[in-house]
Amino acid sequence: TIKERSWLESSEIVAGLILLDKLQPTVVNPSDLYMEYKEIIPLKRDGISNEEIITRVGLTPVTTALRAAKTINGEIEPLVWVSILEKLAVKARVASKVMPKIEKLQRGEHVDVNEVLADLSVLEHNAGELIPLSEVKPTKAVWIKTGYRPLDFHVGGVPDASLTILAASPGIGKTTLAIKIAIEMVKKYTSKKVAIFTLEMTNGQICKRAIEVDDTLSDEDKRKNILIADATMNVKQVFAIASQAAAKYSLSLIVVDYADLLVSGDQSEATMGVIYRTLQQLAKQIGVPVLLVSQLNRGTYGGGIPKVNHIRYSGMAEACAASILLAYNPFNILADFGRQDSLPIIEGMAYLIVGKSKYGYKRGSPGAIQIEWDGAFGWGNESKKENWFVLAS
What we know:
It is a single chain. It is built from 13 helices and twelve strands. It is of the alpha/beta class. The longest helix has 29 residues, at 78-106. The protein is elongated.
């Protein structure tokens, strides 16, 4: 059995292996090493001799590192020590973030517990290793059926462990549609729960909307299988709470309504990029589809059929999302849509547009699903083969 080492001990060993030329300094990130040992790496990369390194760094760290490397007796391959060091360095960085917050708690000061949990969640998901393909279990399905028939029939559902963005103008019914998909997931996967983060509406408003969307929803499902949170929070807090929920429960879907409200301060390409990337990472790390509701950019969208480039900061959205859906309801908004529309405008009908699919299109290309729309009850449940319309890119 290999003796368990501390971050300091592993730093000494790796630095010593580099000084002995048993490890190339290029394979080590200097910031992963403890204190003065990190100074050895760039010097070795520059071809500086061990004697000169002693004059620059000091005799003690060099001799300690050499002694540590000579005492491991070839327990494991030198490169494996680099992997061990990387993992311990992550723990040390997390500790450096968490400890000041713990000290605040000890003094009775306010600390955002969700930020602490988000910092700690890095430890759970710190894989960072290459593994043989033979050890990877094949995934049978990229798409997860939602139970919402128009989406399942024409698209295949939502991509597993990935980010899906549902975008539309205000008042189009995107929140209603997201809730409907969540409810159908609850009905389809009775042993799993959905988590809804409602940053605009209150829990009570979401409950009312859910009843309006589906009045057959049982009290049992509302009590056991639909989890909601209406607190104002940033994306880091959503990540932490969702990760906790995924560890505690079996989740089928996470809904976040909506993207812009996750921003504290001014919106920018950078801040929105962090939101999209964080939720993409959340979906991947906990293995649960994330459905993010988003707005269109009023500066670029003036009505008509919405496209992916109409989403706010669409470049980052397109880069991070595996699937992008756009809700289009010409009878639910006053806009100049007639001149550019290639979809039939029929009263009582709305469209769910498939704008991007990282894993291919079930119908062969981007297109629009025609779905019944009722002002009182929202989106209908049926859509046939003839209700698919191909859209040019």
